[in-house]
């Protein structure tokens, strides 16, 4: 607890810098269950995402601005443990998904709407085994066994929609609540989710149209990026209709291990985000209830996110 207090105070001090205006951002985001516990290595176990975003010089109609994004991502899923030598030991399939993504975010005064499109591959071509071997070698862990039973190869075509609107801002602007909604459809994921994103600021919160909370802080005008440092909590309920990492792809039904989906999932995020000079930083804790039936550990799964964003003109 003392370490956490020190880090919060230290990074809050870093955040107290002059405001600047930046139109471009490069991001590195990693998810891993090792960020919450050294003893966890199961289910959604790793994610790596590299992205480039920029604010357009043009906007349409009542938009304040429009932000474009290019992303490369990799997600990896494993059963109850890294070493499962037989089919019977698999309580969920090994699966890896590698994709490229293009997105547009349309930002308005108190709301935004984004559309994202993915093209990728699920299966051996996504190199999940090789990436997990590298991570385990890096940490000195035993290499995984069981990838020969992973979800088999299929193309990934997915679209995702996100809509958010600020519902409440406190009198002193250190507390606000945003209604956040997401929906996906495609050959990898099909689901809808809704919840509330609550921010508690160490200082005055930036509005939804200019905050790192939703990556709307990029500007191609004289508008400046605000200094930010806040805690947030975001509970969401998701209704899942299809998940190829669990059920296998309907484009390739040769996967030896598949499982039955649990439709309703609760996902909780809580974390700390802050800005310092040209950088934005974040740590996020995630908890999700079970996504599929028959899991050995059916009390939910946790993982962490570490995010680093570099801004430039």
Describe this protein's structure:
With 313 residues, the protein is mainly β. The protein has a single domain (24-308), classed as Outer membrane protein (Lipocalin). 10% of the residues lie in helices and 49% in strands. The protein contains three helices and twelve strands; from the N terminus they run αβββββαββββαβββ. It has helices at 2-15, 128-139, 244-247; strands at residues 24-32, 43-55, 65-78, 95-107, 111-122, 154-169, 175-186, 189-201, 229-243, 264-276, 279-288, 301-312. Strands 1-2-3-4-5-6-7-8-9-10-11-12 form a twelve-stranded antiparallel barrel. Strand 4 and strand 5 form a beta hairpin. The longest helix has 14 residues, at 2-15. The chain is globular and about 60 Å long. The chain starts with a helix and ends with a strand. The model is unreliable at 13-18 (pLDDT under 50).
Q: What secondary-structure arrangement, pairings included, does this model have?
A:
Blueprint: H1 2-15, E1 24-32, E2 43-55, E3 65-78, E4 95-107, E5 111-122, H2 128-139, E6 154-169, E7 175-186, E8 189-201, E9 229-243, H3 244-247, E10 264-276, E11 279-288, E12 301-312
Antiparallel strand pairs: 1-2, 1-12, 2-3, 3-4, 4-5, 5-6, 6-7, 7-8, 8-9, 9-10, 10-11, 11-12
């Amino acid at each position: 607890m003392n370490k956490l207090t020190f880090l919060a105070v230290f990074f809050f001090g870093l955040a107290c810098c002059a405001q600047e205006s930046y139109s471009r951002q490069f991001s590195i985001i990693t998810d891993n269950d090792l960020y919450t516990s050294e003893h966890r290595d199961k289910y959604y176990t790793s994610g790596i995402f590299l992205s480039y975003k920029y604010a357009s010089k043009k906007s349409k109609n009542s938009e304040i601005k429009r932000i474009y994004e290019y992303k490369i991502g990799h997600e990896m899923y494993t059963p109850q443990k890294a070493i499962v030598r037989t089919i019977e030991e698999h309580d969920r399939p090994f699966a890896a998904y590698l994709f490229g993504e293009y997105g547009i975010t349309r930002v308005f005064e108190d709301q935004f709407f984004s559309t994202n499109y993915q093209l990728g591959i699920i299966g051996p071509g996504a190199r999940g085994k090789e990436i997990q071997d590298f991570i385990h070698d890096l940490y000195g862990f035993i290499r995984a066994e069981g990838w020969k039973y992973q979800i088999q190869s299929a193309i990934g075509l997915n679209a995702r929609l996100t809509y958010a609107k600020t519902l409440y801002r406190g009198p002193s602007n250190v507390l606000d609540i945003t209604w956040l909604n997401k929906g996906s459809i495609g050959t990898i994921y099909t689901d809808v989710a809704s919840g509330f994103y609550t921010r508690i600021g160490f200082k005055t919160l930036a509005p939804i149209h200019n905050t790192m909370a939703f990556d709307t802080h990029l500007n191609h005008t004289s508008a400046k990026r605000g200094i930010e440092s806040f805690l947030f909590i975001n509970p969401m309920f998701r209704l899942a209709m299809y998940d190829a990492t669990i059920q296998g792809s309907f484009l390739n039904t040769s996967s030896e291990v598949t499982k039955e989906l649990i439709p309703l999932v609760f996902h909780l995020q809580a974390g700390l985000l802050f800005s310092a000079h040209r950088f934005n930083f974040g740590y996020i804790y995630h908890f999700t209830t079970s996504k599929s039936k028959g899991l050995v550990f059916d009390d939910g799964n946790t993982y962490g996110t570490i995010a680093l964003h570099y801004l430039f003109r």
